[in-house]
Amino acid sequence: MAGHWADFHDEIYLNGMNGTVPRLPTDLTRLEELTEQRLGPGPVGYVAGSAGDGSTARANRAALDRRRIVPRMLRDVHERDLSVEVLGRTLPAPLALAPVGVLSIMHPEAERAAARAAAARGVPYILSSASSTPLEQVAEAMGDAERWFQLYWPKDPEVARSFLARAKASGYSVLVVTLDTPLLSWRPRDLDQAYLPFLRGVGTANYFTDPAFRAGLAKPVEEDPNAAVLHFVGMFADPGKTWPDLALLRELWDGPIVLKGILHPDDARLAADAGMDGVVVSNHGGRQVAGAVAAADALPRVAQAVGDRLTVLFDSGIRTGADVFKALALGARAVLLGRPYVYGLGLDGQAGVDHVIRCLLAEFDLTLALSGHAGPATVGSSDLVEGPA
Fold first, then answer.
1. Model confidence, pTM
2. Helix axes 295-306, 265-273, angle to 10 degrees
3. pLDDT for res 40
4. Which of 39, 98, 250, 360 is least surrounded, with the fewest CB atoms within 10 Å of its CB?
């Protein structure tokens, strides 16, 4: 791109000369509280909530906060390039939008709005299997922009086969397989509201439009939606899957495959042995196992184990440009951003997602420069120290 991501900083100040201030806060950590005030408790709880008492989500933040950046001086950072090579494609910055399902609970334009915002900035958009919008419609909204497909690996292999064929036909280039959700965890915020969107047929668009899924129904979805929901619930995930099952996915998908939810270096090695192309070090933003290791604490061990064999990506806890810097220093090639863009969507639709992307990358650009780096490639473990917990 022309110029720097940090130009957004100057743009905001110049707009202020006309009395214009940003519609949303530029401190992205404030978005959750705003969303809590403006949206209903069911949707907000579903997005913001975590497993158990929330200890893993808190640990994710603490692990990033504990690491402190050590800026270096008098290095030429006048010209900067944030682009990175990830899985054989060049990205304008080390960022993709993480797969988040059921976005229609946040905004009526749902996944399409988020995907359009990502496409406009050249940031890959990862569509969830559990989206509110069929994958073909999201692809159409993105034109030829970079898009990846996230698979919740269903029990029915024919549905998996059909999903991957549809994704390939619609121009999704990378397959992201989420492994950490073979069952839904104990999530008190959802349980207290008895709120699970899928049971209302929300987040099931890819399934309800899928020929293999529909073939398993006695009546069409439109005639018996409750039966369709029950069929979905019965096949959504499969706790019986094991490592050898990956061979089928490798057979069905000839592009890059990334396994999401890896926290142990041995699992990362197994992923490499299975012919995978990358891993996402992630604990699902603290949504699956209360008391789990913080994702940022797991990252260096995974990167050390397989960084020479696999592309290592990271999510769970990213809120600021400084967090992106820290994740790269800990061994990630790029990060996936989740909840903040969803809050932006809920507060201001596509413009809200655009605001979040631009704020995060402007702050990252400035953090990089002010720490003595002209690009992500030179960031490493020597740029961080560990402070007290």
1. 0.98
2. 40
3. 94
4. 250
CA proximity to 171, closest of 236, 112, 124, 114: 124
Spatial contact of 43 and 106, defined as CB atoms under 8 Å apart: yes
Q: Give CA–CA dist 213/44, Å, rounded.
A: 30
Using an 8 Å Cβ cutoff, are 47 and 339 in contact?
A: yes
Residue 65 carries which DSSP code? H
Percent composition of the chain: helix, strand, coil (DSSP 3-state, to 5): 50, 10, 40
Give the pLDDT confidence of 306-354 residue by residue, as tens digits. 999 999 999 999 999 999 999 999 999 999 999 999 999 999 999 999 9
What is the number of residues in the chain?
A: 389
> Residue 388 has what pLDDT?
77
Label the pairing between strands 384-386 and 67-69: antiparallel
Q: Pairing between strand 174-178 and 257-262?
A: parallel
In the numeric block, which tokens belong to residue 12? 């905001």
Active site residues: 284
- Average pLDDT along the chain: 97
Question: Could you report the per-residue pLDDT of 52-69, keeping only the tens digit for each?
Answer: 999 999 999 999 999 999
Dihedral over Cα of 332, 247, 265, 54: its sign:
positive
Residue 273, number of CB atoms within 10 A of its CB: 12
CA–CA distance, 20 with 35 (Å, rounded to integer): 22
The conformation of residue 98, written as its DSSP 8-state character, comes to P
In contact, 159 and 248? CB cutoff 8 Å:
no
Residue 276's contacts (CB-CB under 8 Å, 6 or more residues apart) are 246, 250, 257, 258, 259, 310
Those residues with Cβ within 8 angstroms of residue 66's Cβ, 6 or more apart along the chain or in another chain: 386, 387, 388, 389
Distance CA 383, CA 95 (A): 20
**Contact (CB, 8 A) for 207 and 216:** no
- The C-alpha atoms of residue 291 and residue 299 are separated, in whole angstroms, by 17
3-state DSSP assignment of residue 247: helix
DSSP string over 8-27: HHHHHHHHHTTT---SS-SS
Task: Give CB contacts under 8 A, 24+ apart, made by 384-387.
Answer: 384/67, 384/68, 384/69, 384/70, 384/326, 384/329, 384/330, 385/67, 385/68, 385/70, 386/66, 386/67, 386/68, 387/66, 387/67, 387/68
